[in-house]
Amino acid sequence: MRYAITVIVLLPFIMLAVPAETVYEPTWESLDQRPNPEWFTDAKFGIFIHWGVYSVPAWGPKDRYSEWYWHDMQNKEGETWQFHERVYGADFPYTHFAHQFKAELFDPVEWADIFARAGARYVVLTSKHHDGYALWPSEQSWNWNSMDIGPQRDLCGELTEAVRAEGLRMGFYYSFYEWFNPLYHRDVHAYVDQHMLPQLMDLVQRYQPDIVWPDGEWDHPSVVWRSRDFLAWLFNHSDAPEDVAINDRWGRETRAVHGGFATPEYQHISEGRLMDAGRLEECQGMGKSFGYNRNENVDDYRSTAELLELLIDTVSRGGNLLLDIGPAADGRIPVIMQQRLIEIGEWLDVNGEAIYGSRRWRENREGDKIRYTTKDGVVYAILLGWPGDEVTFETPQAGDDVTVSMLGVDEPLTVRMQDDKLIITMPVLTPDRVPCDHHFVLRLEGVE
């Protein structure tokens, strides 16, 4: 209980003790008044994890998400079914993969260490994807959860404990709908009241997540999912932290409009109230899939420089990057994914000052190779690659006391004005003094 004075309100799914102050009503008008938590706006970089039964076949066409395996194998003319029939046989049902999802090499402490070394500030785990399989002992998914079948472990709980021990925030992805749940197809209202809401509330009460990240909302408007009722409960009465963050996937009409932050997956959203305000979190995999896809090879994975450019560009627009990894069914994070994460962390060790806690500047970019952020009156010009001997800026307006330095380099840089342009001489560095391998940050003081 957060407050001493209460009023009792009865909703169809739970009795609520309503605080006498700071109450959010179950309306978008009220819920949208809640600001994004400051910690989330400051964090800038999180790790997305897609892991579940679909990690056993771990296969999809190169332009598809491998976690959609069960859905895609319904198309008997499609590549996924052809792969399934050839490798596993036409009589092998998807549900039997659960017996092979053993997570025998899963070490949550090792995962959390990698995430911390990557410079991430939060983690979002898929607690349940559209196949309905839950990664915690959920009563609503009896015999279709990680305690009853497969690993026989509380994967959500173990990872939450390890992540928080590293000082990171922990959140959960949760799919509203389930492809083949009979109750969902027979009576969606009964499904929401009897299955979805109790399950989602159980997830919140067990683990007190810092982020609630729903998905699979597009079949119905938010009124059907009872999203507004849930959010009023989450903010006013649940055991989640008071600064819990939420995304925008609460109904077919809500993306980039309602909720805490927009989620432009692979940059597919460009408009909306949340996007316009710079309240966004770009989510992408290192390749084309979120779940581990054995059909992707090294050429399908983006380089560290490309992933850093994605992070820099997203942060310059005011947003966060939620970068996905897809662990194998045995619990190992593929080495190529580990390598990318560690190299991102090495870059952030030098240049994180321009990322963490920053905000978008009056202009977020200049040309193709310069991105801007700002913090505490300082402007950071992030150069996408080494510009040569000099770099010219047209956007910053410099005063008489302008000073420029490069993060990771001790001495100030030479600055001059010419034709109202700021021209900076890049330092001459021996290989052992180059501060990082990709992209370089100039710290501009005395500009506006």
How would you write the strand order of the largest sheet? 7-6-5-4-3-9-8
Number of domains: 2
Alpha carbon gap, first and last residue: 47 Å
Provide the helix percentage: 25-40%
Shape: globular
Total DSSP E strands: 17
Please give a structural write-up.
The protein contains 13 helices and 17 strands. The chain is an alpha/beta fold and 448 residues long. The chain folds into 2 domains: 25-354, Alpha-Beta Barrel (TIM Barrel); 365-447, Immunoglobulin-like, CATH 2.60.40.1180. Strands 7-6-5-4-3-9-8 form a 7-stranded parallel beta sheet. Strands 10-11-12-17-14 form a 5-stranded antiparallel beta sheet, with helices on one face. A 3-stranded antiparallel beta sheet has the order 13-16-15, with no helix packed on it. Helix 5 crosses helix 6 and helix 5 crosses helix 13. The longest helix is centred in the middle third of the chain and has 20 residues, at 188-207. The two termini are 47 Å apart.
Features:
5-stranded antiparallel beta sheet, Immunoglobulin-like, 2 domains, 7-stranded parallel beta sheet, single chain, about 450 residues, disordered N terminus, alpha/beta, TIM Barrel
Helix-strand blueprint:
Layout: E1 6-11, E2 14-19, H1 28-31, H2 38-43, E3 45-49, H3 69-72, H4 79-87, H5 108-117, E4 122-128, H6 155-165, E5 169-175, H7 182-186, H8 188-207, E6 211-215, H9 222-225, H10 227-236, E7 245-246, H11 273-276, E8 281-285, H12 304-316, E9 320-325, H13 335-351, E10 365-366, E11 370-375, E12 378-383, E13 390-393, E14 398-406, E15 415-418, E16 421-425, E17 440-447
Parallel strand pairs: 3-4, 3-9, 4-5, 5-6, 6-7, 8-9
Antiparallel strand pairs: 1-2, 10-11, 11-12, 12-17, 13-16, 14-17, 15-16
Helix pairs in contact: 5-6, 5-13
